[in-house]
Write a structure and sequence with these properties.
The chain is of the alpha+beta class. Helix content is 48%, strand content 13%. A hairpin with a 5-residue loop joins strand 3 and strand 4. The longest helix is centred in the N-terminal third of the chain and has 13 residues. The radius of gyration is 14 Å and the shape is globular.
Length: 123
């Protein structure tokens, strides 16, 4: 049985695709099944999850837990080899700032795409 976590991204977003490519390169243990939410099968996809994925990336863990936005990003960060940083950023005093930073980036993806990524990832 496949015990990988699902990482659901927006396949129509260049920033999201390039971020997913970076995660794939860092995911040396193959923890994630990365897929655009627009192409995700049932399960894990539901209509409710599809609507939520239009607003933020989600992780559906192998045990069925669903994480979104900043919490999902911290989970991915820990899984690809940065557990201390993810743990620190996930502490109660810092977690609201992680969620705020996630929202700022999500709302300004074209700007951050140009800032962090220098070449386009093909669709």
């Amino acid at each position: 049985m496949d015990q990988r976590d699902w990482l659901l991204i927006d396949g129509e977003c260049g920033f999201c695709r390039r971020s997913a490519d970076w995660i794939r390169r860092q995911d040396r243990r193959g923890r994630f099944r990365i897929i655009p939410y627009q192409e995700a099968p049932l399960p894990p996809m539901t209509e409710e999850l599809r609507a939520a994925c239009a607003q933020a990336m989600h992780v559906v863990t192998a045990d069925g837990q669903t994480l979104r936005a900043g919490r999902a990003a911290l989970y991915v960060l820990a899984a690809i080899g940065h557990p201390r940083l993810a743990g620190l950023l996930g502490l109660p005093p810092l977690l609201p700032f992680v969620e705020l930073a996630y929202r700022i980036v999500a709302n300004n993806r074209p700007f951050f795409s140009r800032l962090f990524f220098t070449k386009e990832t093909p669709r």
